Amino acid sequence: MPEVTPHAASPAQWVRYPQCRLLLCGDTGVSVEFAEAIDPWINRRVRSLHKRLKEGAYPGIIDMGPTYRCLFIRYDPFLCSLEKLTCIIEQNLDIPEAQEEENERILEVPVCYGGPFGPDIKEVGARHSLDESEVIALHSAPVYRVYMIGFILGFPYLGGLDERLCTPRKNSPGKAVPPGSVGIADRQTGIYPVASPGGWWIVGRTPLKLFDLKREAPFLFRAGDAVRFKPITRQEFESYKDH
Amino acid sequence: MRAIKIIEPGPLATVQDQGRFGFRDSGVPVCGAMDRQALRLANLLAGNGAHAACIEITLGGFAAQFLCDARFALTGAKTLAQCGGSPLPFWEVHFARKGEIIQTGPPVSGIRTYLAVQGGIDVPELMGSRSTFLRGNLGGFEGRSLRREDLLFVGEPGKTGPSFPVFKLPPELVPIYSANARLRVLPGPQIERLTPEGLQTLFSSEYVVSNRSDRMGAMLCGPAVELSRGGDIISEGAFPGAVQIPGNGQPVLLGSDCQTTGGYVKCAAVIEVDLPVAAQLGPGNTVGFVEVSLDEARSAYLKNEYLLARLYENSAKAGGAT
After folding, report:
1. Predicted confidence (pLDDT) per residue in A58-86, tens digit
2. Looking at chain A from residue 126 to 145, which residues have their Cβ under 8 Å from any Cβ of chain B?
3. Cβ–Cβ of A149/B187 closer than 8 Å?
4. Helix, strand, coil in percent for chain A, rounding step 5
């Protein structure tokens, strides 16, 4: 089990816990920070707290956003004081140290790599002295973990990228990236749900819709999901689109 | 037909309510009125519940025709406004006759005006809100800003009618928007990432609001805030009111449409009761930050909420705001 990064001395308004701290985000928000690291166990603690608070349906908690290592909580001080919220969080932190088995889903995501769908694949390869097929093999080999959903409408942040593909973000965000684009940034890979400007290196595109209001579950991914990419051809991509 | 027709939307007009909460874990931003206080007071005057949807008019230049008799109110950024040829004072109840045209000129102070019509703008509710999320093309009226000829339906006015006594807001509730705002802030989650000089700079400088500002965030120009080890953090929750410091040291004040997660240092957070002041800052206005205690922020918040709750209660007793 990885060590939790100890924090430097903190201002008085921070409430400290043995393994996490509460940071004020204005007078209507707090961030429960577990560590300054991207780590599966820490992320699991974030999601566990999120799940417990969601199940508790506490009045006054109006929005929550689990991220890599923090849980952001928006609350209404009119309905729930910070003191009360602190107690609620404290009560829900007491989770067993043993790793709980998650109700895990493994999603297979078809991706058409390179060509017009992956305009940056050659550049990513060149930076690591890999040819295109090696980039594809390395990118589609691991089982990734959805650490968090954020940015815009169901964007999954996937951890577990092969170190040989880690590439710092582009210096300036490119023009709008089409929906379904699969990108790499630093140690992460992710998929753009809707057209958006982005600074990630685009290596391919999935025909799956990450966000569709017509579906019963509009968002394809949830934090905690496991994801594997399956390389497909252009023809296969087009046939998916017909569905 | 209970509806209004847009004749001229001006630079930007959108349908907004109090915001979309509960979907942050799916990456859905809050959206909603930039100036939530003005929206709630507009609804109160129009005889709506606080959750009804209004039109947020940015920088004036708006015109629309009432296709029904309607009770309505204008709040927020003050402009020269008229309906059916009569001037329209802000922060008051008004009644329009079917066919009359409402027009607003350029704002005198502030930039965002709210038009509430009794019954509320009746667009479909999406994920618990009628707010427009422009970048996601979601919610509001067809997920976009309003255009000429758009026909917006208005909900049924509940039990109240034009017999409801006309009233004005207590003067202490009518805000004064300044072109030189002092925003009260609490220290942000990464305040320790500022150098002592950076901290000094943040709290002693005036920043100019750039014209590249929008509902996502106001870009501020001025003395660079120095960071101790770069501007990047592991992405975490971002929220309206947060003051972000990117690598170039120029603060960005996040707005209602801000992304749900971000990887920049958040060094401060504007307190809730001052967000409306921030929302009314336009390009060229200046802003300074002053640190307050959590107790001060909380008592200001609670005082305002009690005041609004009481107004809504009184108005409900008098037969309004259902």
Report:
1. 999 999 999 999 999 999 999 999 999 99
2. none
3. no
4. 25, 30, 45
